[in-house]
Amino acid sequence: MENSRLYIITGSINAGKTMFCMRFVNDARHRKIDTAGVLSPPVICRKRKIAIEVEDIRSGEKRTLAQQQAHDEPGPQIGRWFFYADALQWGNDMLRRSVPCDLLIVDELGPLELLRHEGWQAGVEAIDSNQYRLGLVVIRPSLLQEAKKRWRRAQVILLNPWIRNIQGWLWNQKLLLELETQLTGKPPSSV
């Protein structure tokens, strides 16, 4: 789409990257904005992250994407995380169908995608397509330079874990205003 904007959401562990995306999705849905892509919320047990889910933003359907224990099903491994090949494929299918849209969110692209060219390559292609008005992609700090090489036009939002609630809210309001202005051609009366 003409004038599509791309933001890279980054920050340390527990900076609130996925939470920021989840809140943004809820606010966009409330405003009837066509929102698509995937979220990767953690599964927490006894204050410890034990698995990662993948959620299709349009349908709300979820699958287990990765866990810390080895399993018999095929899939790649990154560090202590064992990924499910079928969940990666399902996520790719959802990402292929995500564009065009008004708001595209890809949470997250990591070493699988940016270094090994595996994982959610459909997410990389969706971002490259520019078939969205506003795109948000979550990238860990260690891969930020790699992502900036690929998407030079992207602006970076660095979330700080100490002020994540207020910082996330302020960015949320700014981006919603930007998106609604693109959709209507004029700023909304209230955000």
Describe the structure.
The protein is an alpha/beta fold and about 190 residues long. Helix content is about 35%, strand content about 30%. It has 6 helices and 10 strands, in the order βαββββββαβααβαβα. It has helices at about 15-30, 85-95, 110-115, 120-130, 145-150, 165-185, and strands at about 5-10, 35-40, 40-45, 50-55, 60-65, 75-80, 80-85, 100-110, 130-140, 155-160. Strands 1, 2, 3, 4, 5, 6, 7, 8, 9 and 10 form a 10-stranded mixed beta sheet that branches. Helix 1 runs parallel beside helix 6 and helix 2 runs parallel beside helix 4. The longest helix is centred in the last third of the chain and has 21 residues, at about 165-185. The chain starts with a strand and ends in a 7-residue tail after the last helix. The model has no long low-confidence stretch (mean pLDDT about 90).
